[in-house]
Design a protein that fits this description.
It is built from six helices and seven strands; from the N terminus they run E-E-H-E-H-E-E-H-E-H-E-H-H. By secondary structure, the protein is α+β, with helices and mostly antiparallel strands. Bound molecules: zinc ion. Zinc ion binds next to strand 4.
Amino acid sequence: MDYSMLVNKQNPLDSSFEPQELVVYPEYNGPKIDPNHKTLVEATTLNAFYEMQAAAMKEQGYHIIVDSAYRSYAYQQKVLERNLAEKGESAYSFVALPGTSEHQSGLAIDVALYIDGEYTDQFDDTFPQIQWLFNNAHRFGFILRYPKGAEHITGYKYECWHFRYVGKEIALDMYDNNIRTFEEYHTLLKRK
Ligand SMILES: [Zn+2]
């Protein structure tokens, strides 16, 4: 598995791409539309998440969970088709084309929180749990993938909940050199 892979609108994944090893995430992550829905995460990514989750709990008492992770090409296709049927061509402006969603890589995690034992996905970046992730995710190999003010670079609007596993080496390198987007990191790599 290539943890440095860049997935975006210019670099889509093939329809046949699937992560090598997907693992079921067992923790309850809120009411899903489909009760049979299983949250799947790439194996190494999930282990790194568990490490981060344990640290957040131990250091601050924050309970951070995986809300959504792997989504297949076929799933993204279905979402697009449903929205095209309901809303017409405008669906292209708010639904990612199949292959361009980083969630197909299995390396992307949308987080949610337990606050006072209750699941919530209603939070913003002023929440201390999210601030903790901004300041600490790199220690565990994660980056905030769609930072504020970088929409013109990433092609996606700011998402304070979407983290991407890139491995500790890259995440630390980006943090130490204040490189905010994975696109910029890849451009720098090509120059080396
Ligand atoms: Zn996401």
